[in-house]
Amino acid sequence: MSSGNGSAMFRSFSIFNYRVWFIGALVSNVGAWMQSTALSWVVLTQLTHNDAGAMGITMALQFAPPLLLVGVTGWVADRFDRRKLLMLTQSLLLVLGLTIGVLLLRGVMTLPLMLVFAVALGVVAAFDNPSRQAFVSDLVSQENASNAVALNAASFNTARMIGPAVAGIVIVAVGTGWVFLVNAVAFLAMIVALRVIRTDELVPRVKATGANRLADGFRYVRRRPDLMVTFAMVFLLGAFGMNFPIFASTMALEFGRDADGYGLLSSILAIGSLAGALLAARRDRARIRLVIVGAGMFAVAASLSALAPSYWLYAATLMLTGFAVVTTLTTANGYVQTTTDPALRGRVLALYMAILMGGTPVGAPIVGYVAAHAGPRAAIWLGAGAALLAFTIGFSWLVLSGRLHRHESRRFAFSLDETRPISVVNRVAPEEFSDEVAATTPIRLPSVTVPDLASDPRRPAAERLDDECEVGGEREVSRDRLIDGRPDNRG
């Protein structure tokens, strides 16, 4: 049994391209976490006098570009070769990290200059993130996509365990500038991996035709109430709950710890995060119900963190926090990837990443201000409240959508319906339909709701679709869409 579970958990490793990608991403992510830890500590302790507000502004400037450029970056991820695009973005991030490190070592870095670099890092990341997320679907087949996303999260959080702790030690030993130089070298691992990948083994991509497709991602999500709810929960967690650099650094100072103490907190957070990612990798598919449960767990974990009386008890609560947040976000990411039309996956993922990361410009300055004026515990309580609101939105939607209802045979039990999303690409006019998508996504609708009508071949196709079309559990009556009706039960 255990060997079978282990095989299922790591099944994407059977693919050569994914193994190469995983190794390169792991090394690169270690460097990225080292740089993230050093950047926060520099702003908090070297460029200001423990000003959490300035730290919040720095984070906001870093994460604002993904939100502002979401339409362009998603279109680029769908339109161009993602492997070459990632080689470009990784190279630019290498140059930026190297420059910041040199300026710090020369002692000429200032807060305004660091804010400029924060914007530059954000702009490059705005193009890097959706391409990186969507590229996973180019490496593995559809049935392994959810597993690959979860293993990516495991890589990310393994690096999160190593990077901050190493960064804290390096900062104390030789200074922050060297951390940025190490990160610059780490980017080479990803660039090499992208060159080693066998391009002839990549999964063929489905591209939408037509010049004006930037709005298709927005239209698609608007027609999917399940994605709307998922995005709302992710936004609240990203804006107010996931400001860990502010929470951990200010709490470390409150407990009288230095940079190594702050780095250790980030690594302890990653222990729970890694556990959540590995458990997500074992699941056969991502379900929206787990996103809702994860948001509730995050609210509980953040509340415990705000009440922690000592450094080590606070550190212990961070493991539960990490487990909750990764369970929520990994499941949300996998759900979005596996239930989105392939022709629009890059744009929808860009919108997802923009909402996740773009929430930071909204929440980080607020959380930083609260931490600076009311203390770090008040800021953590703010994050707990946002997570509770996210849980409330998700749970309310479950009830109102009719998925959660009384069990038919058990008196005090409830049952939850599974979501069967159908991929829908909205088109503004029939002549803009994509022949390529139509040719590669055959319509196969299950005759469940009205079998005597939906299966009648004498009825017009559009009328049969109207009877059967169910997007994220909500009935849709529309004839100007292209529908992929594979009944894969991914909800």
Describe the structure in your own words.
The protein has 491 residues and is mainly α. Helix content is 71%, strand content 4%. The chain contains 19 helices and 6 strands. The protein has helices at 2-9, 16-46, 52-68, 70-79, 82-105, 111-139, 145-174, 177-196, 216-222, 225-241, 244-254, 259-282, 288-307, 311-338, 345-374, 376-400, 435-440, 451-454, 461-468; strands at 404-406, 414-416, 423-426, 470-471, 474-475, 481-484. A two-stranded antiparallel ribbon has the order 1-2. The chain has a two-stranded antiparallel sheet with strand order 3-6. It has a two-stranded antiparallel ribbon with strand order 4-5. A hairpin with a 7-residue loop joins strand 1 and strand 2 (414-416). Helix 5 (82-105) runs antiparallel to helix 8 (177-196). The longest helix has 31 residues, at 16-46. The protein is globular, with a radius of gyration of 23 Å. The two termini are 25 Å apart.
